[in-house]
UniProtKB/TrEMBL annotation:
GO terms for cellular component: extracellular space. This is C-type lectin domain-containing protein. The keyword Oxidoreductase does not apply. It is found in: Secreted. Gene3D superfamilies: Mannose-Binding Protein A, subunit A (3.10.100.10). InterPro entries: C-type_lectin-like, C-type_lectin-like/link_sf, CLec_Tetranectin-domain, CTDL_fold. It comes from the Eukaryota. Residues 220-330 form the C-type lectin domain. Signal peptide: none annotated. One of its GO terms (molecular function) is growth factor activity. The lineage of its organism: Eukaryota, Metazoa, Spiralia, Lophotrochozoa, Mollusca. Keywords: Lectin, Secreted, Signal.
Length: 344
């Protein structure tokens, strides 16, 4: 069968998204064969599109995955009958033709080389074939975490910049304020989504992930305290969830001695405007209880004129004076950090 010249391959592509996967963690892998606009290709008439796979890069032995028949639009192959794969495709006499296979949470052997073949009739009326490939590599969970953490950091910095702009925007410019608020909310949702991605990573890699997100204290009475790194935006709900994910809870400071220990390691130079710890009076105003143990907060070293008891200020944290203040549970105006307490 004749092979068209490479000049035609620019209109026939094999794409993989993403091009790098983490086994069992990446949400989906999409591999697509796309033949764009038959009129400018060597195949004005397409009979089939086929996708094949080789586990080892550079291996000439490919395993058939799926074939789309141009005569009846039927898709055949292992991917069509697999519970973990979804197939879609269409062959059009004008416009684009495609064959797409999607795997949910792809396993390690989905990495490798993918080859797309388009078989049809050339402009001269002879059988012809176009072939092109793409590659999917296997990443370690650690490298995936590093990317997510970096993305979280960049998104958090952008949120901080936007909120600074919002605070400086004239109240008369209501449309600009509304647009900024929408963009900030969208970014916060993206931050939450990235946080959820971190929670999908394997338990065996928790120490690596913990070292990326927190600064630990020495051991104290059978437990350690972990200060979240600055330049991340977390509300109290997300902070509580993150502490629990690592086997702990928001720090429950119940004595002057315990406060002195935490202060010496984390509050000597304040890492952020506010540092969240455990404590809320959301259920009953002026009655402060821990969010994890549900016991009364026994040590409340309030700052002057604190707590202000605003109905919107139902969480607690330390400010630049290293004293306790009541603050909103979803305080986003500036970068905040929090402290987890994790038994060992």
């Amino acid at each position: 069968m004749a092979e068209p010249s490479n000049g035609f391959l620019k209109s026939f592509t094999c794409s993989s998204s993403p091009s790098e996967i983490v086994a069992g963690v990446t949400r989906s892998l999409v591999v697509e064969c796309l033949l764009s606009n038959h009129n400018v290709t060597a195949l004005p008439f397409v009979m089939s599109l086929t996708l094949s796979h080789s586990n080892s890069t550079g291996d000439s032995a490919y395993t058939h995955i799926a074939t789309l028949n141009g005569f009846d639009s039927h898709i055949s192959g292992d991917a069509q009958t697999s519970l973990e794969a979804q197939t879609h495709g269409a062959i059009n006499t004008t416009g684009d033709s495609f064959l797409r296979v999607t795997w949910a949470y792809p396993i390690a052997n989905r990495a490798g080389d993918y080859r797309c073949d388009a078989i049809g009739i050339s402009e001269s009326g002879k059988p012809a074939r176009l072939s092109t490939t793409s590659r999917v590599t296997l990443a370690s969970p650690e490298s995936e975490k590093e990317r997510i953490v970096e993305k979280l950091r960049n998104q958090s910095i952008l949120i901080e910049t936007l909120e600074t702009t919002l605070n400086r925007t004239s109240s008369e410019n209501s449309h600009a304020i509304h647009d900024l608020e929408k963009e900030i909310q969208s970014l916060k949702a993206a931050v939450q989504q990235q946080g959820n991605r971190l929670h999908q990573l394997t338990p065996m890699s928790l120490p690596v992930l913990k070292s990326m997100l927190f600064t630990p204290s020495p051991l104290y009475n059978g437990r350690r305290y972990y200060l979240s790194q600055a330049k991340f935006f977390f509300d109290s709900k997300t902070a509580k969830s993150n502490c629990e994910y690592f086997g702990g809870y928001m720090a429950e400071i119940d004595s002057a001695e315990e406060f002195g220990f935490v202060k010496s390691y984390f509050l000597a130079s304040m890492p952020s405007r506010f540092v969240y710890i455990s404590g809320t009076d959301e259920a009953q105003e002026k009655v402060w209880v821990h969010t994890h143990s549900k016991t009364p907060v026994r040590y409340l070293n309030w700052g002057s004129n604190e707590p202000s008891h605003g109905r919107e200020e139902n969480c607690v944290g330390y400010d630049a004076r290293r004293v306790l203040v009541d603050i909103p549970c979803n305080y986003y105006a500036e970068t905040s950090t929090y402290i987890c307490e994790i038994p060992e």
